[in-house]
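agent: user wants the structure for Alpha/beta fold hydrolase from Tenggerimyces flavus. delegating to structure tool.
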Amino acid sequence: MTSTVTSADGTSIAFDSTGSGPALILVNGAMSFRAWSPTLQSLQAGLADGNTVFNYDRRGRGENALIETPEPDAATAKQAELDDLAALIAQAGGSAILMGFSSGSVLSLEAALAGLPVAGLILFEPPFVITADRPYVGADYRERVLAALTEGRRDDALTAFLVEASNVPPEFVGGMQESSAWAGMQQVAPTLTYDAAIMGPTQTGDPSLLKKFAAVDVPTLTIASQGSDPWLQAGAAATAELVPNATHQVLPGEVHDLDIEPALPVLKAWLGQLTAGR
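agent: tool returned. relaying tokens verbatim.
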């Protein structure tokens, strides 16, 4: 059953929760939301026997009101997403473990860095670009996406995200535009300005930009999928090296996705150790 919390700017954020025990909030990646993420749905069900698992739609997606006008200011967009998480953590009892996927893991890191009451972090493949095995993302990426959206060119904004930020081969984008999912992607395209604000310049190829995350002082588990491209695996491993209290696991799965069955025992063991140590 869907419930809502109200963020600091009055935005209503939809979520549902399952299970009992310490709060665990699942944080989706770019454009994804509860109804579009079978991986997070499976994790919510699989982890509910030891945690109260919250699954929410990031603003502008799912059961939340759509965003028609993209946010021009990156700092405002980033703070809005942090405020959304703060409202959810308050709803969850004042403290929560965050489990982030892709850019959702970067949002989770930023929440801990900002001093939100985060008890622990599980980070699946933060999409940092710090290796030379794929093109870097230009520093003007957010400005170009913002311009495309402001001018009503949602297909161009989506193409920039897919090809530049996500490293999808350009020849695949045409087929995606012909799919039934493309219309839904067009609807949530304005959220890309929020997602780009969360990512900041961390996809420009400069690993020194990640050093700020060394100040994150909560227990952290970073995860990469065995089937993912080397640049995605490198981002997760680099995060584990930076965060002082972090461990790293490579688990079975396809590109940028997890195989739930073998992942659940690893996640439950780590969560159990975290709870025992609190």
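agent: one observation worth passing along. The CA atoms of residues 45 and 253 lie 18 Å apart.
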